[in-house]
Design a protein that fits this description.
Radius of gyration: 15 Å
Enzyme class: transferase
Number of strands: 4
Largest sheet: 2 strands, parallel
Pathway: Protein modification; protein glycosylation
Structural class: alpha+beta
Helix content: 10-25%
Catalytic activity: an N-acetyl-alpha-D-galactosaminyl derivative + UDP-alpha-D-galactose = a beta-D-galactosyl-(1->3)-N-acetyl-alpha-D-galactosaminyl derivative + UDP + H(+)
Shape: globular
Number of helices: 3
Distance between the termini: 22 Å
Family: Belongs to the glycosyltransferase 31 family. Beta3-Gal-T subfamily.
EC number: 2.4.1.122
Length: about 110
């Protein structure tokens, strides 16, 4: 409800992802169970979908939680400072198992690009 009543109208392409399908929102089931930690599975599922043929080709992917408030016009102005053809990640960096040859990725409740 937060996204729908605030910034959804400013999004060129928007999808809602979940661990269940809900036609009233509508959500897309990613096939990744909900968890309190280890959200990297959801992030990687979203990235796989973003890079798949099912998605329109756009310059940027913004991942946010369902309670995130954001100004898309302001974000677009910020993104003009970057080249979408270069590897760019904006957000909080999260490390998973880095001491055991793990990996890092962007995360954060405020969203990430």
């Amino acid at each position: 409800p937060v996204v729908k009543s605030t910034w959804e109208k400013d999004a060129a392409h928007l999808e809602y992802y979940s661990d269940v399908t809900d036609a009233s929102i509508p959500t897309i089931k990613l096939g990744v169970p909900n968890t309190e930690k280890g959200h990297c599975g959801k992030t990687f599922a979203i990235l796989r979908r973003f890079l798949s043929e099912a998605m329109p080709k756009v310059d940027w992917l913004l991942i946010v939680d369902d309670d995130t408030l954001i100004s898309l016009p302001r974000l677009r102005r910020l993104l003009r400072c970057y080249d979408p053809k270069e590897a760019v990640s904006l957000g909080e960096r999260y490390g998973y198992g880095l001491m055991q040859n793990g990996y890092s990725y962007a995360t954060g409740g405020g969203g990430y690009v």
